[in-house]
Amino acid sequence: MLEHLQSTTTLHNGVKMPWLGLGVFLVKDGEEVINAVKTALEVGYRSIDTAAIYGNEQGVGKAIAESGIPRDELFITTKVWNADHGYESTLAAFDESIKKLGLDYLDLYLIHWPLPSRGKYVETWRALEKLYKDGLVRAIGVSNFKIHHLEEIMANCEIKPMVNQVEYHPRFNQKELHDFCKSHGIQLEAWSPLMQGRLLDDPVLVEIANKYNKSAAQVIIRWDLQTGVVTIPKSVKPHRIAENADVFDFELSQEDMDKINALNQNKRMFADPDEFDKV
């Protein structure tokens, strides 16, 4: 049920994950990320999504420690970067991330990209399975995985991913991937749900926003939630962090959902996961 900011979806292993969180991609370590995370936690967010490559795990950890919020009320995600693919490398990368975050365990650990050119994501996944079995991570998942990447993991490993975090927004709604994930109990999660702000002046979204007395950003976030997709909009501005969370007091009609769905162009803003090989 999408009732409030702490509302959760239940992953296939029974772990509850908030529908809405704060993403901190491109947020500078130090005061910028500390202030953003603290603001989000004060507003009522309980899910924070970072990654090793973001270079701000330390600041995220500091904000968490200083918030005074009990650890078991928070849902903290980070990701293993491409350079650390491989079994032992992934375990070492996890140790480094958790040390920077100052935590005893993670709520969700993701493989950031499949990096098929290196052919190690199955091996990397087995390291995540070990971390999960050892109780160091409550849930494990992937990011930017296509259907065939997920199929290879499911064919060769013991535990299927609980989450797949992907580029997802009205111009790229990944319907086939979303349907596949739903059919296998894998929770889809949206990164860059606002397309880095490029959708905020779209006339269709603006018209719908005016109808509900909301912003285009709020309409997009609400569309995510009503399509069953966890979402993590990023902002460092306190008023935007609060605005992005103010999406639980209205519901988009099916007609308006259909209008937003019709904006899809199957158009990525970022790299194709089959081609992205940056390490």
Automatic annotation (TrEMBL):
Binding site for substrate: H112
TM ranges: none
Source domain of life: Bacteria
PANTHER family linked to this entry: 2,5-DIKETO-D-GLUCONIC ACID REDUCTASE, NADP-DEPENDENT OXIDOREDUCTASE DOMAIN-CONTAINING PROTEIN
Annotated signal sequence range: none
Gene3D superfamilies given in the database record: NADP-dependent oxidoreductase domain (3.20.20.100)
GO molecular function list: oxidoreductase activity, acting on the CH-OH group of donors, NAD or NADP as acceptor
Keywords attached to this entry: NADP, Oxidoreductase
Active site: Y54 (proton donor)
Segments forming domain NADP-dependent oxidoreductase: 29-264
Family in the record: Belongs to the aldo/keto reductase family.
Protein known as: Glyoxal reductase
Keyword DNA damage in record: no
Keyword Oxidoreductase: yes
Site keyed Lowers pKa of active site Tyr: positions: K79
InterPro entries: AKR, AKR5G, Aldo/ket_reductase_CS, NAD(P)_OxRdtase_dom_sf, NADP_OxRdtase_dom
Pfam families: Aldo_ket_red
